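Long-time lurker, first post. I've been practising inverse folding by hand and with some scripts of my own, and I keep getting stuck on stretches where the structure tokens seem ambiguous. Below is the full token string for one chain I'm working on. Before anyone asks, I'm not after the true native sequence, just a reasonable design that respects the backbone. If someone could post their per-position residues I'd love to compare against what I wrote down in my notebook.
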């Protein structure tokens, strides 16, 4: 028994020493910094991030999969340039006390009928709600007007007599962003692909931005870290790394990557998408875990965890269009990894900062993925 255990230990390369979180921490810190403006179209935050990530790929020795590592992507996106709201003498706090949404989506007749507090001022609905909707660019005002302003019921003003609202939305129907793609050539053409989206929710005026440390600077850090680990030796399979834009606006980057694929998707042995990878005190969740072509991977993941107890739990979920694995999932075995539980900043929240990003489970989560793929874990 002892002998078997020893052999297993020696055969499990993922348990090599030396892995730490310093590389990931640096990437998360830089991507979630104010200089990236929440990585959307406002202040060209996405392009600043893309340039940074291209440099990282270069310094890791990745070769460009597309010209200069950038694959152009065009999509409809919005951001908020300014959003000052004052009623009477009270200045409202963006995000905390009010949020801005597409009137089409939220100021529907049903919605308005239900709302106890509401007021139409200059064509804009101000609606009182007990809980503000989750912030998301998908819910944004895709036409410059109309939009609506949700205000917490507890802050809803009695009178709108002295309303001054300076809300300036940036809406670009044909915004040019880019996916970033690099690779290491292996001994064979068969590929393993790692993906993560680097865009996030942008800004809410001058004073609020969405750092997106957990969502998804952490996933980008993990993908680059996987490249760093692989760079130490010549890989057997060709390894491809794709960082997508436009996920928050509806998987735009990954859809373009499939429609205009620079690789032969029939040669992809496995695709691992990582979206929200810090925290993890409750374990790992895998979407598209039950398909015929992905199930064997997850079975292996469970076997590894039964033996080594690297993560608190593994949850299997069916396929869902909730991240960038989805457009690939009809073409190749594509799985989406997300952590369960904290510590992390809240979802689509200005509190999703590097500081709130717990990486206690990071190394073991990486070991799980590498072990599942049968890859070395040397550094
Ligand atoms: Zn998100």
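-- Answer (accepted) --
I ran through it position by position. Result:
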């Amino acid at each position: 028994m002892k002998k078997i255990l020893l052999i297993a230990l020696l055969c499990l390369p993922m348990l090599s020493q030396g892995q730490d979180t310093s590389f990931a921490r640096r990437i998360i810190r830089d991507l979630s910094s104010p200089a990236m403006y929440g990585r959307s179209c406002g202040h060209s935050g996405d392009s600043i991030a893309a340039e940074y990530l291209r440099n990282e790929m270069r310094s890791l020795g990745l070769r460009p999969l597309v010209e200069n590592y950038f694959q152009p992507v065009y999509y409809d996106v919005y951001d908020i340039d300014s959003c000052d709201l004052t009623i009477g003498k009270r200045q409202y706090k963006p995000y905390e006390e009010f949020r801005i949404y597409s009137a089409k989506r939220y100021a529907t007749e049903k919605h308005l009928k239900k709302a106890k507090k509401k007021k139409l001022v200059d064509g804009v609905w101000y609606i009182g709600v007990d809980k503000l909707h989750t912030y998301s660019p998908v819910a944004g005002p895709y036409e410059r007007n109309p939009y609506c302003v949700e205000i917490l019921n507890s802050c809803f003003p009695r009178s709108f007599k002295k309303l001054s609202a300076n809300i300036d939305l940036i809406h670009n129907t044909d915004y040019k962003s880019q996916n970033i793609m690099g690779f290491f050539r292996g001994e064979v053409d068969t590929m393993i692909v790692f993906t993560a989206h680097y865009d996030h929710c942008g800004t809410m005026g001058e004073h609020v931005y969405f750092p997106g440390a957990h969502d998804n600077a952490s996933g980008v850090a993990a993908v680059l870290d996987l490249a760093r680990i692989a760079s130490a030796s010549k890989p057997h399979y060709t390894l491809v790394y794709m960082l997508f834009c436009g996920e928050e606006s509806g998987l735009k980057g990954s859809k373009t990557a499939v429609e205009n694929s620079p690789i032969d998707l029939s040669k992809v042995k496995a695709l691992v998408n990582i979206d929200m990878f810090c925290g993890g005190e409750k374990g790992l969740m895998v979407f598209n875990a039950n398909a015929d072509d992905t199930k064997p991977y997850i079975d292996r993941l469970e076997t590894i965890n039964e033996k080594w107890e690297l993560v608190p739990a593994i949850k299997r979920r069916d396929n869902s269009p909730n991240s960038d694995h989805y457009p690939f999932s009809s073409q190749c075995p594509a799985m989406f990894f997300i952590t369960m539980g904290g510590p992390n900043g809240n979802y689509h929240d200005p509190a999703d900062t590097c500081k709130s990003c717990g990486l206690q489970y990071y190394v073991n989560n990486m070991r799980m993925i590498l072990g599942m793929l049968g890859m070395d874990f040397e550094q």
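A couple of notes from the structure itself: Residues 90-161 form one domain. Residues 129 and 259 are 40 Å apart (CA to CA). Happy to go over any region you disagree with.
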